[in-house]
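Researcher: I've been going back and forth with a colleague about how DNA-binding transcriptional regulator, MarR family might be arranged in three dimensions. Neither of us has a model we trust, so I'd like an independent prediction. The organism is Ferrimonas marina, in case that matters for your notes. Sequence below.
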Amino acid sequence: MSTENLQGKSDPLRLDSQICFPLYSAANAVTRAYRPLLKEFDLTYLQYIVMMVLWERQRVNVKTLGEELHLDSGTLTPLLKRLEAKALVVRQRSESDERVREISLTDEGRALKAKMAQVPAAMACRVALSVEELMELKRLSQKLLSQLADNGPAIRPVVGDAENCLT
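Model: Here is an independent structure prediction for DNA-binding transcriptional regulator, MarR family. You can compare it with whatever you and your colleague have in mind.
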């Protein structure tokens, strides 16, 4: 993707002028690359990231989990039901507020963490970027996410030439 394309000096609707397409394609490629690593544990990528949050916290309510993972309840609820069916998590009502659903790990869910310890290193090897490149990619991805998240800065409307917002 050239700077010339980003600054609107060529057709702004060319696919190679877009930043969204390589991001979309890379996200899909990452998910596909995780598939064989997670298959032996019978987990999908989304189930894996839910488990990572639970390994950090032990217990979390569904609303907080959805906010942290940027997943809506329509995606999260069936995913959590499948993890519960695999005996990795337990869904229960909060003792302090029965309207709130809390998710916690089972013993089997806790034990899975040690079994999956090699997954991040295997992915890092698969990506074949330097540590510095990985850290920069993570930093820029987090910056982009925070700017585009619902609670991020307002998006400036682009009127006319996109060059106005790229300077």
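Researcher: What would you highlight for our discussion?
Model: I'd start with this: The chain has two domains: 1-35, 36-150. After that, consider the following. Residues 1-35 form one domain.
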